[in-house]
């Protein structure tokens, strides 16, 4: 069984949002176009509290882009983004949410960030997605969304570690590129981990 996973297609990651991903608004139309090709569609949401440890505003004298140690791990500091129950955390208005079977939220614990849709950055706590897929005998995922070099990358690496056959829909991803080359390096790491990079036009579609 296969599933489509849509990563963090939320207002704050679109142009005009708090942590805008360049061309982030280009991915929702890709998602809308391929959702009918999948029986199972899951979405994830970055879902922080205002006191989240990844927010520069919660660390005196720090600014976005700085790196600190959080829960023993290196942590890039970000502008406040995707605060629970705010507009910024909402799905992009053009994204068709009607076929979402389940939404998985992450980054809830203020003391640790969670780029991956499967586990927090220390791999301590599961979001429930791995168990959910396992219980439905879904062994193959198609994944796309925001941002290529953070949440998509770490989700794909975890998916491969979990033994999931993983296809990354590259035209459905956009990255932050804090440092030049981050997006290319992210795709390289996914490929090295055994993920297959495809474009949305390669998806065989028998509409559901
Ligand atoms: C993300 C940075 C901070 C993402 C989430 O969804 O890629 N990036 N929080
Ligand atoms: Zn976040």
Question: What does the model show?
Answer:
- The protein has 208 residues and is of the alpha/beta class.
- Helix content is 19%, strand content 22%.
- The protein has four helices and eight strands; from the N terminus they run βαββββαβαβαβ.
- The protein has helices spanning 27-34, 129-135, 148-161, 182-192; strands spanning 2-7, 41-46, 67-70, 73-76, 102-106, 140-146, 165-174, 196-198.
- A six-stranded parallel β-sheet has the order 5-2-1-6-7-8. A two-stranded antiparallel ribbon has the order 3-4.
- Strand 1 (2-7), helix 1 and strand 2 (41-46) form a beta-alpha-beta unit.
- Helix 3 packs parallel to helix 4.
- It is globular, with a radius of gyration of 16 Å.
- Bound molecules: pyrazine-2-carboxylic acid (VGL) and zinc ion (ZN).
List the helices and strands and how they pair.
Elements: E1 2-7, H1 27-34, E2 41-46, E3 67-70, E4 73-76, E5 102-106, H2 129-135, E6 140-146, H3 148-161, E7 165-174, H4 182-192, E8 196-198
The protein binds pyrazine-2-carboxylic acid (VGL) and zinc ion.
């Amino acid at each position: 069984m296969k599933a489509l996973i849509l990563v963090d297609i939320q207002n704050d990651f679109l142009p005009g949002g708090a942590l805008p991903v360049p061309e982030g608004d280009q991915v929702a139309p890709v998602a809308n176009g391929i959702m009918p090709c999948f029986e199972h569609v899951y979405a994830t949401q970055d879902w922080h509290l205002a006191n989240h440890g990844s927010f520069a505003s919660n660390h005196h004298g720090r600014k976005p882009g700085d790196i600190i140690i959080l829960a023993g791990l290196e942590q890039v500091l970000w502008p406040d983004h995707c605060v629970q129950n705010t507009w910024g955390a909402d799905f992009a208005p053009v994204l068709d949410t009607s076929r979402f079977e389940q939404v998985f939220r992450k980054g809830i614990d203020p003391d640790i960030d969670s780029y991956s849709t499967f586990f927090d950055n220390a791999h301590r706590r599961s979001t429930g997605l791995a168990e959910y897929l396992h219980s439905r005998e879904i062994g193959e995922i198609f994944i796309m969304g925001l941002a290529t070099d953070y949440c998509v990358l770490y989700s794909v690496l975890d998916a491969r570690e979990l033994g999931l056959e993983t296809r990354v829909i590259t035209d459905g991803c956009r990255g932050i590129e804090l440092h030049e080359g981050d997006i290319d390096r992210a795709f390289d790491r996914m490929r090295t981990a055994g993920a297959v990079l495809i474009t949305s036009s390669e998806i065989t579609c028998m509409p559901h």
